[in-house]
Task: structure prediction
Amino acid sequence: MYENSRGMVRTALVTGASRGIGAAIATRLALHGVRVAIHYNTSHDDAMQLAAILRSQGAPDPIVVKADVASADAVRDLVIQCEDELDGLDLLVNNAGIFIDTPFEMPNFDEWADAWTTALNTNLMSAVHAVHTALPGMRARGFGKIVNVASRSAFRAEISAPAYAVSKAGMVNLTRCLARSEAANGIRAYCIAPGWVETAMARDTVAAMQDEIVSQIPMGRIATVQDVAGVAAFLASADADYLTGITIDVNGGSYLH
Result:
């Protein structure tokens, strides 16, 4: 009932899906027969273009939804809208996030505190609020999958962007808490922790430090968004049904723990 003929979930909301990793995950799921909600905040044209591409490729009719995930009320309304328009959510992918500098050396306390609040609200609390809103419907149906996109930073930590690392560590433990509390309700929770990925958000840093970055990756290359999307598609499939609470590292061996 909750899987299509290809053994995938039937419906999914992917936050931050207008570009980058989120767009790749939404695309991979859609081409496996999943009806996806493409979430965006500011990149309206990118989201609409992705939806048009998916329709042209014969994917189940996607919907495009807007929300500022830093707002708890906006996240709640977003999930409710997707549940209504998709007739229930089988899969929630919490991917939306930002990377901002929040070093402890920032001289202005108010600016530093505001930056931490912004990072935590966008990267972590958005997922917490989405999960809380999605869980009642998943419990009622006795099925659901939640995929949280974290980062290698959750384990390796950061010097210039500690709030980012802390938010991603929170995603890992959110996944574990969900796994323990919701397994009896038929709900699985997973986490993906990418290392460096070729995205617009990382483009400038990668361009400036590519040789150094690649030298730290035993596989000898930076990940593509498809590397991450393939893992998400696996987790959305019946093949991952006995897994829960796990974090899958997608970093080419650059950090092992």
Remarks:
- Residues 11-244 form a domain with the Rossmann fold fold (CATH 3.40.50.720).
- The first strand starts at residue 11 and ends at 14.
- The chain has one domain: 11-244.
- The longest helix spans residues 109-141.
